[in-house]
Amino acid sequence: MPDLVFSHSHEEEVTYFADLILPLPIPNLFTYRVPRTMVEVIKIGARVIVPFGKKDGRVLTAIVARLHNTPPPRYQARYILELLDDYPLITSYQLELFRWMADYYMCCIGEVMNVALPSGLKISSQSKVQYNPDFDYPELLSPEEVTLLEELKKHPALTYEELGRLVGELNVPTVIKALVGKRAVIVFEEVREKYVPKMIRKVRLGAAYEDREALLDLIRKLDKSPKQQEVVMRYLRHVPVLLNSALNSRGLDKTVLNQDDEISQSSMTTLIKNGIFETFEVIQPRFSDNLAPTVEIRLTEAQQQASEAIMAKFNTQNIVLLHGITGSGKTEVYINLIQQALESGSQVLYLLPEIALTTQIVVRLQRVFGDKMGIYHSKFSDNERVEVWKGVVSGQYQFVVGVRSAVFLPFDNLGLIIVDEEHETSYKQHDPAPRYHARDVAMMLAQWQQAKVLLGSATPSLESYYQAQQGRYGLVELFQRFGDATLPQITLVDTKVEKKQKTMKNEFTSALLTALGDNLERKEQSILFQNRRGYSPYMQCEDCDWTAECPNCDVSLTYHMKVGELRCHYCGYKEEVPRTCPVCGSTKVKTIGFGTEKLEDQLQILFPEARILRMDLDTTRAKNAYQQIIEEFEQGNVDMLVGTQMITKGLDFDKVSLVGIFDADRIIHFPEFRATERAFQMLTQVSGRAGRRGGRQGRVLIQTSNPQQLILQKIITNDYRGLYDEEIRERQDFNYPPFSRLIKLTVRHPEQHISKQAAERLAAELTDTLGSSRVLGPEQPLVERIRNQFLYDILIKIERGPVNMKAVKEFIRDRINDVLTDKGLRQVSIVVDVDCL
Ligand code: ADP
Ligand code: ZN
Ligand code: ZN
């Protein structure tokens, strides 16, 4: 056998194969054949189009991960259909990153690719139908077929959808199938790239008139048609071709010349017809604001010291944690470091949590970096994301500020990565896979590209602070607010006492009401924080105790008054508010508890003259709603802002001198091992919005039924270190992170007993080898059922140290496969969350 092959191959060229990443949740790469015409040009990291699956015509966009000449042992390789890039769209660093992520986060590399690439770089394929010009047996056709065919004759080609719209009630797929059988139509796949660059139409003088004499001659001749002459003169005012003929080639935006009047439009048409003007199109970059840098930052002495300390640490350490209190001007320190990195010629990535990015920070950065800075945000349109991607490749953007998915951009020369607000949980992707943590991914990226990482926070995660204590990260502190501002004074208000004295009005203590009134009088702004949206979280019948519950999930429905709906915050289910109890018919249906909507409502009644805005998920759904609220507040058109944790993140307002916090107890007593850390972070961050400018000290009032709680004492004294010492001991005692690594497996199935059975079996198999101290559960989570799926959690805790995590993960993966290949359990789904939060 080998001889046979050999005797062929010295005449024929070697057959090339490519291992491809397909955008599917499948564990393996797929091998395809490279057509001879592509062999010379195909590169690792380029996109290709390949057929996939049994059905003809289904195509996928894939990425070339490996080129070689070994045929796949178990299947006949199919040919690559098309090569989309003649350069690697995905850098080798990115490929390495994809592989690492799939391994580390226990998912498929195709899933990583799906999340990594903006969909504009993926390809969509759509079936199109076309009239077959060779068809000439019309007598064979049914009336429906004739109708369809007549439509098709009028158009070059149509999609099924377009056809459906044209022919109304006809069953398009069936009729087409019949027509295909009769060879009356041709069906083909049209592949198109979804990224559409924005084009602008421009005009310029015909090449003949770039010559000075010819142009002057033309102007003289146009004396007879003054309107046309006016248009030419208008052009010359914008593009002085007589002074510099080379300017003509760049032309002028057509809309500038038309100036909306019809006269110039018709003159224009004539000028174009006569060859005096010619039109052409160019791609318009989407971010051509022509922003020039306008400010220079002068660091304060404390900031300068911090900046120098960070640079010094970078000499010996790759990761530095900047612990800087709220309002200390961490952003200014970052800017300084970014400038240094850019000057040295390397790229910079600045990560921010989603919501913080929409705001003021971007404006501040733009004033410094102008249009050298790319912005990568998930609210951006896909085309905009593609443009940032391409800008990084082309070198236009050496510096990108972005949300967690910006770690996927094609950097190849990073010098510095900043992770601002590094404690933020929104850096962890929840759904879908890969369930990655952008901070941790950033560190891997940095390691490969020899970049430095700066983590920054006023309330560092225990994990990061612990690493700093162990000497694995450098630690730099900045404990001074900018200007003459000081940290706000935090007061605990006892709601139990006020309730007894009957001094509360609705949810407001008299202490908070007085403070709010004072602030209103002084025309200073107040922020009110309640981490729950909607009007109230429960609706209940006083007579029979019925409560409104979601039919799909195991939770109560939240009452939203303005829209008159009950809504599920887990699955989005909504229904109209019942006027009477659906069980007993009683009219005494009451609401229990309060959310931001109710607070806003009550506040307006208490302070009728106050201008109040609310900021939560419900008021910020529209594209620019968030910015609008911030602008209104910034311009002083608002006295009080009520909001959820959205208002805790990075906002920087001058005139906020009071922050009121509701329901602190609920935040503190959340049943989760990180609750104390979270509460400290959340309450400290929201407090930090007060008193950010000098002048009078800001004030924070926290309403609680138990002011003695240790954590509240730590918050009012801003005692991060005390909190850390306390917490880290507990983490150690119970072997929680940072002393262990967590992997959470969630088993889901619409039937509870199946879900339970699968979870119990999985847990048993895991426990057999890992031991019962490392495997907790299965346990039903707080919300047992979401979207009609019953959930069971298994928590795997692996101590840090000499454990081969790779082997552990492989073992877990095998056990999951065992369960999933069991006949009775095949429909179960199991979600793996590595380093779950
Ligand atoms: P942090 O992120 O540490 O909470 P910021 O970076 O938002 O603090 O800074 C707080 C405020 O102080 C911002 O409005 C910022 O513009 C201002 N600020 C801080 N440092 C300086 C500086 N060196 N020069 C001018 N303004 C500064
Ligand atoms: Zn009832
Ligand atoms: Zn629901």
TrEMBL record:
The keyword Nucleotide-binding applies. Zn(2+) 2 binds at residues 550, 553, 568, 571. It comes from the Bacteria. Coiled coil: none annotated. GO terms for biological process: DNA recombination; DNA replication initiation; DNA replication, synthesis of primer; double-strand break repair. The keyword Transmembrane helix does not apply. GO terms for molecular function: 3'-5' DNA helicase activity; ATP binding; DNA binding; hydrolase activity; zinc ion binding. Residues 311-478 form the Helicase ATP-binding domain. It catalyses: ATP + H2O = ADP + phosphate + H(+); Couples ATP hydrolysis with the unwinding of duplex DNA by translocating in the 3'-5' direction. Its cofactor is Zn(2+). Zn(2+) 1 binds at residues 541, 544, 581, 584. Binds 2 zinc ions per subunit. Its EC number is 5.6.2.4. Residues 576-731 form the Helicase C-terminal domain. GO terms for cellular component: primosome complex. It holds the Pfam family PriA_C. Keywords: ATP-binding, DNA replication, DNA-binding, Helicase, Hydrolase, Isomerase, Metal-binding, Nucleotide-binding, Primosome, Zinc. Belongs to the helicase family. PriA subfamily. Component of the replication restart primosome. PANTHER family: PRIMOSOMAL PROTEIN N. Initiates the restart of stalled replication forks, which reloads the replicative helicase on sites other than the origin of replication. Recognizes and binds to abandoned replication forks and remodels them to uncover a helicase loading site. Promotes assembly of the primosome at these replication forks. This is Replication restart protein PriA. The gene is priA.
